[in-house]
Amino acid sequence: MDTQNNNKTTGLGPKSATLLTTLAGEGRHVFTTTEAHALLGGSQSATYKLLHDLVRGGWLHALDKGRYLIVPLEAGPERRFTLHEFRLAQHLAPEGYVAYWTALHHHGLTEQIPRNVWIVAARRRQPVTLLGVTYTFITLHPRKRFGLQTLWIEGQSVAITDLEKSVVDALDHPEYCGGITEVAKALATALEERGADLGRLSDYALRMQNGALLKRLGYLAERLALPVEDYTAQWRAALSGGRALLDPGRPADGPVEARWRLRVNVSDAEILGWQEA
Question: pLDDT by residue (tens digit) across 125-170?
């Protein structure tokens, strides 16, 4: 490795250039403080200072405590580059997956472009903004973490909820998907246009063990006259007691739909109006 020549082209110090070119040569875009110290040697405090300076200089992005993303050397002196947001999501939460509104958009179930990338992660953390994109992290009970598929983005595998699970998750948490109107559109589009497997969707919905989800699913399926065959009987048999809100992000007012034990706190115009748009 010609470190001296690399210094001239990048403006980096010898140790910084050694670290970044070594990792890049190994095809590693993300590394930890421990890995950096193993490569550089010396004191830990010197490693911490070097990494801090590289972040300040735009050569690294701090992903999490002790984890860094390398900004490609070809990003130029302004340190500007792009990286597919799904790849970055996988770096931010290696054990997590892309979900909710982001997954609905990926599967073509909503025309709205989410402002955030929604990630189901193993632990709670504050939203992070990197390269102009905000990443929002959601934690879920382990029983709800299923129904995934793998995408290959620029040579990297990324986990995302499949078509049916994306719809079920939206029914579980409409507030993470733009509200119940977007969820109604996603449900109808999945069943009528995207070839969703109704049996799989129903199995997923029951597996979630959330009565509010089933109430929203049954009500919307009937209100939108969707082709759900006799699955409504299964959903009704698994209903929980009490009344759920059609849209948990709205005030708790509006009429009660007794058949589905649901307070309909969204107008018909919002639930059905998009069909005529």
Answer: 899 887 778 999 999 999 999 999 999 987 789 999 999 999 999 9
Residues with Cβ within 8 Å of residue 221, at least 6 apart in sequence? 187, 228, 231, 232
pTM for the structure as a whole: 0.81
What's the length of the chain?
277
Cα angle 177, 178, 184 (rounded to 5 degrees) comes to 80
Query: 3-75: what CATH class?
Result: mainly alpha
Q: What tens digit of pLDDT does each residue of 164-184 get? A: 999 999 999 999 999 999 999
What is the rounded distance in angstroms from the CA atom of residue 252 to the CA atom of residue 239? 20
Domain ranges of the chain: 3-75, 85-276
Kindly give, in sequence order, each residue whose CB lies less than 8 Å from that of residue 118, ignoring residues fewer than 6 positions away. 98, 99, 100, 101, 102, 103, 136, 138, 176
Supply the DSSP string of 237-267, one letter for each residue: HTPPSS-EESSTTS-S-S-EEGGGTEE--S-
pLDDT value at residue 8: 40
Predicted confidence (pLDDT) per residue in 8-64, tens digit: 435 678 888 888 888 877 877 788 899 888 988 888 898 989 998 888 888 888 887
What contacts 44, CB < 8 A, 6 or more positions away?
37
